[in-house]
Design brief:
Length: about 240
């Protein structure tokens, strides 16, 4: 796959996923905690399943256990660093400021997701499609999470769509880098897959799952995770 095509696909993945989340504010002005928790849990299950059964096994097959594991650690450490920066920002400035900070966090998280898409396509079309599909589904609740405080702060839905689309653009940049570095050596593909896997594991386990549980204390997020995990297995097996 050409670098240009990878960038286009990566951009579409991020833009469509987060953009649909922003567009949802046309229908969900203030989504219920139960709904939000369930959809975030489902997204978390999908992500975990694809990372564990598809992305990381390819990383280990291509680069070996040691280099793949190093990639996981690098990805987790990088996202941890950015998370610390975001956590140190003041989020007491009202709905609009909270939406802006969420947008920054989502944009940072979208980069390694794009890296996974680009590196996945360097391995095979099926792996690239699997990762792209799951990330698109995963980005929907992220876009909704970003757009909800904007909506509460009086931002009209069409602007929510624009802002969430902008947050999805880094996915295309990550996909481009995944293809360019993957073209250097197969080991770079495996390393990139490991880095993307580590980053996605950190985001899913450190951010998405705890947030899904905190939003609503019921069992809906757990059931969503299980259904999402099963869905990821089906996607991995049949796509």
């Amino acid at each position: 796959m050409s670098a240009f095509n990878a960038m286009i696909i990566g951009s579409l993945v991020g833009v469509i996923g987060t953009g649909l989340g922003g567009a949802a504010t046309y229908f969900f002005k203030n989504p219920s905690a139960r709904f939000f928790s369930g959809i975030m849990g489902t997204a978390a299950g999908l992500m975990l399943s694809i990372v564990v059964f598809d992305l990381l096994p390819h990383a280990f097959d291509i680069a070996g256990l040691t280099l793949g594991t190093i990639g996981i650690l690098i990805g987790a450490i990088l996202i941890s660093f950015f998370d610390m920066i975001i956590e140190n920002m003041d989020i007491t400035g009202g709905f609009i400021k909270e939406g802006v900070l969420l947008g920054i966090a989502i944009a940072l998280h979208n980069f390694p997701e794009g890296l996974a898409v680009g590196s996945g396509f360097m391995v095979s079309q099926s792996l690239g499609i699997n990762i792209a599909l799951v990330i698109t589904l995963h980005d929907f609740p992220e876009g909704l999470a970003m757009a909800t405080p904007f909506s509460a702060g009086g931002i009209p839905p069409y602007k929510n769509v624009i802002y969430t689309v902008l947050a999805g653009i880094p996915t295309g940049i990550g996909a481009l880098i995944g293809v360019l570095t993957g073209g250097i050596s197969p080991y770079f593909i495996g390393l990139n897959l490991g880095i993307a896997g580590g980053a996605m594991l950190y985001v899913t386990c450190g951010d998405v799952i705890p947030e899904a549980r905190n939003i609503y204390k019921g069992k809906i997020s757990i059931l969503g995770m299980i259904l999402g995990f099963i869905g990821g297995i089906i996607i991995t097996k049949y796509l």
